[in-house]
Amino acid sequence: MPGTKNSGRKKIFKNKKQVHFFIEQEEYDKLIEVMKNDGYNEFSRYMRAVVGRLLE
């Protein structure tokens, strides 16, 4: 269903399992800062970058 409000999110949460990551305190602070200042799109982009580094 292209164009619906949640169409972009389905790809990320396809299997609906919760994943827990432990991140450094400064990365967490940066995430909170990004979320406050830049909104959800920037936050999710940064979050994927952080998780991508953890999975390497």
What does this structure look like?
With 56 residues, the chain is mainly alpha-helical. It has a domain at 22-56. Helix content is 62%, strand content 0%. It contains two helices and no strands. The N and C termini lie far apart (33 Å). The mean pLDDT is 69.
What are the salient characteristics of this protein?
56 residues; mainly alpha; 62% helix; 0% strand; globular
How helical, in percent, are the residues?
55-70%
Structural class: mainly alpha
> What's the average pLDDT?
69
H-E string:
HH
Strand content: under 5%
What sort of overall outline do the alpha carbons produce when their principal axes are compared? globular
Q: Count of helical segments?
A: 2
Major β-sheet annotation: none
Calculate the terminal CA-CA distance, rounded to whole Å: 33 Å
Count of distinct strands: 0
The quaternary structure here is: single chain
Estimated radius of gyration:
13 Å
Low-confidence stretches: none
Summary?
By secondary structure, the chain is mainly α. It is built from two helices and no strands.
Could you outline the blueprint of secondary structure elements for this entry?
Elements lengths: L6 H4 L14 H31 L1
